[in-house]
Amino acid sequence: MNEPIVSPGASLSRPMTDSFGRSISYLRVSVTDRCDLRCFYCMSEDMTFLPKADLLSLEELDRLCSAFIAKGVRKLRLTGGEPLVRRNVMTLVRSLSRHLDSGALNELTLTTNGSQLARFASELRDCGVRRINVSLDTLDPVKFRAITRWGDLNKVLDGIEAARSAGLAVKINAVALKNMNEDEIPALMQWAHGKGMALTLIEVMPMGDIGDGRIDQYVPLSLLRARLANQFSLTDLDESSGGPARYVRVGETGGKLGFITPMTHNFCESCNRVRVTCTGTLHTCLGQEDASDLRKPLRASADNELLAAAIDRAIGIKPKGHDFIIDRRHNRPSVSRHMSVTGG
Ligand code: SAM
Ligand code: SF4
Fold it and tell me: Is the CB of 324 under 6 A from ligand 1?
């Protein structure tokens, strides 16, 4: 039988389409699994981090991102852990900004807890970053400390102001937490909308062992939406970023409110994203254990052919979707990785 003729290097620029016909154009890169906070729903207090020796260097991360961009990634989000605690992370941001200049990349952005933003906001803007997501679950300093175990709310609020002053559009992400911030959602929304920032609510997901079960944390967003609808007029918006959030316009504030409901709705049919960790492991589904090592092909040769072929193989077996369950029978992690490893 004749082997199909494949030209050498074909993988390098081959667009990434999975076996369900979904085109991959969005890459999230966790540049470190370390963090300066310890949000109780994300990691345990004595979290074990990946050995530093396993980390890709900033140059390797750049090469990896650039290989994905050559294969059609148009949006790149840096995340973590806390991306802004990775030493010299701005070197990576600056070097990746060349893909914005060339037009290969439409957007370079990041998700941050905001604690280091005051230091980096202007430089981010200077590197072509225009929008960022800041995770903030409460405006109450005591609750903030309880949620993050030792965080200082004022640092985050200063960081948000620095970002806004630098001209960055800020979206606030808040994880809805039973008996913790669920009653504060209207106030958080009014605060965010008052500053022209959208707010997106997220259901807590059973990712990684955090010491305790998830039952005491999980509150379905359908419940919070129904409560909000008693107080505010919510109009569904059609727009979708191809992502999991569904948005409404809030009549009273004029602002946008998003709902990310991985627990109660499955939005996998339109999934356009994959994730890479700081050790070069590719996860093609947030809610599955699937993993492909890209560090080995990356290090095996100076050109990107082996790497691109490994990416193609992994995309070819991207799972159809996830099924998270939190109830009394399923109070263990659905996925053993913590969110801080894959990033959000
Ligand atoms: N440290 C940065 C931050 O907090 O924005 C980036 C990484 S963090 C893992 C990304 C997002 O994941 C945050 O919005 C965080 O609240 C969310 N997150 C963490 N653990 C989660 C979980 N178990 N379920 C749902 N969201 C989670
Ligand atoms: Fe750190 Fe973000 Fe996880 Fe909080 S959610 S512990 S800030 S990685």
Answer: no
Query: For a pocket test of ligand 1, which of 38, 135, 170 has the largest count of ligand atoms closer than 8 A to its C-beta?
Result: 135
Q: Measured at the alpha carbon of residue 137, what is the angle toward residues 46 and 291, in degrees to the nearest 5?
A: 55
**Test site for ligand 1: of 149, 199, 202, most ligand atoms within 8 A of the Cβ:** 202
Indicate whether 4 belongs to any domain.
no
Expressed in angstroms and rounded, the spacing between residue 173 Cα and the centre of ligand 1 is 9
Q: Are 38 and 82 in contact (CB under 8 A)?
A: no
pTM for the full predicted model: 0.93
For 286-323, write each residue's pLDDT tens digit: 777 788 999 999 999 999 999 999 999 999 988 787 66
> Residue 168 is part of which domain span?
10-342
The CATH number assigned to the domain holding 271 equals 3.20.20.70
**How many distinct structural domains can be found in the chain?**
1
In angstroms, rounded to a whole number, what is the distance separating the alpha carbons of residues 166 and 126? 9
211-225 pLDDT, tens digit each: 666 778 889 999 999
Please name the residue whose Cα sits nearest to atom 4 of ligand 2: 39
